[in-house]
Design goal:
single chain, mainly alpha, two-stranded parallel sheet, two-stranded antiparallel sheet, globular
């Protein structure tokens, strides 16, 4: 498939476009949370990389800076499929669009930075119904190659490494792969990758919290295990950590589901901490619309916020939450032929999974031969 065809299809994908008007505000001025400082550093790297690419076409210097920014904090990347035609002069330097990203990837396709940018591309466009599976599968291949290379060359992970500044590590690659598995609805594999990352670094709280969220919403573990995981997340996190509101929400909800974990007063206490964490989060990072508030936070607010005393019966409500995938399709619904979109093979049976990437599916040999998941 040519880049022109890919671009025309991508133009129909919903943007993750943020703001072109100005540089992002510095979060580290409002909190001592190390993650805020990482975000500010990542934003500087990202903006400098985009400027280098646009103003001087210095792709060799731009690629590692944008790649480092993404690995350090993916929220620093301001991505859109296509720039507005009437964009004011200079504002394009605040955003990475699909066309520029393609040029960066193609500049040196064998570099570490190019592989990371392919992962970035899959993260932002993996939900596209026309070619999302292909992008995710290609990213999976690059993650595997990078991971295997680092396994043989551990010095790459050192903070003073001259390869992407030590940001390219096995635990981060596993984090990225877990996110791609979640995008495909494969929560078991996502959970396994997060467990692997915690074996590398048991204090990697982001992975612990993400895994606990998967367990809580898919019933992969019992309430007592989930409860203890979120308690550990809180104990390891900065008081202003963005994930605290979700951890406190689940601590309250698990108590309400399993009373052996605490009293109703304990649940109400966690709910109050959840409210404070949400207020602090919005104070630092900006207020959110209701649809951007995490589901567990909504659920605990709707439940305990309306009935803040004993006798609250939440079993049915929590079961409904756990039988959903928090806004994502189930893994079975996401299975479709990567070429034609069919949900079953020609005989009405299950699709065939690619034996190389174990991500994309085919309905027939013809569709498998007709498409290349590594095409740009």
């Amino acid at each position: 498939m040519s880049r022109e065809i890919w671009y025309s299809q991508a133009a129909g994908t919903k943007d993750s476009f943020q703001s072109l008007g100005s540089a992002p505000k510095k979060w580290s001025l409002l909190t001592s949370d190390p993650q805020a400082a990482d975000h500010d550093e990542a934003c500087e790297l990202f903006l400098n990389g985009v400027r280098l690419a646009r103003t001087s076409s210095d792709f060799a210097a731009a690629i590692p800076q944008i790649a480092c920014a993404y690995l350090l904090d993916s929220r620093s990347v301001n991505f859109t499929v296509k720039l507005p035609e009437d964009i004011d002069g200079g504002k394009e330097n605040f955003v990475l669009d699909y066309e520029l990203l393609g040029k960066l990837i193609e500049h040196d396709e064998q570099s570490f930075g190019s592989s990371v940018l392919r992962i970035l591309l899959a993260t932002h466009l993996g939900s596209n119904p026309q070619f999302g599976q292909q992008l995710i599968a290609a990213a999976m291949v690059h993650i595997k190659r990078l991971y295997d290379y680092i396994e043989r060359n551990r010095a790459i992970e050192a903070p003073d490494s001259n390869i992407l500044g030590g940001c390219l590590t096995r635990k981060i690659l596993l984090r990225e792969r877990s996110c791609l598995y979640m995008a495909m609805g494969n929560y078991k594999e996502a959970s396994k990758d997060l467990t692997r990352s915690l074996k590398i670094d048991e204090n990697y709280t982001w992975a612990r919290e993400s895994r606990a969220c998967i367990w809580a919403t898919t019933k992969l573990k019992g309430y007592s295990v989930i409860h203890e995981e979120f308690k550990r997340c809180i104990s390891e996190s900065h008081k202003d950590n963005r994930g605290n509101e979700v951890a406190y929400a689940w601590l309250a909800l698990t108590i309400l589901k399993d009373r052996s974990l605490g009293s109703i007063e304990d649940a109400i206490g966690y709910y109050e901490l959840c409210k404070r964490a949400s207020a602090r989060r919005d104070q630092i990072y900006g207020e959110r619309s209701e649809e951007r508030i995490p589901d567990p936070v909504k659920l605990v607010h709707q439940s305990l916020g309306r009935q803040p005393h004993g006798g609250v019966q939440l079993a049915a409500i929590i079961d409904r939450l756990q039988n959903t995938s928090l806004g994502s399709e189930s893994h079975s619904k996401k299975r479709a032929c990567v070429k034609c979109g069919a949900r079953s093979n020609k005989d009405g049976g299950r699709l065939h999974q690619c034996s190389r990437c174990h991500v994309v599916n085919y309905c027939s040999r013809e569709c498998q031969v007709d498409v290349s998941i590594w095409a740009w």
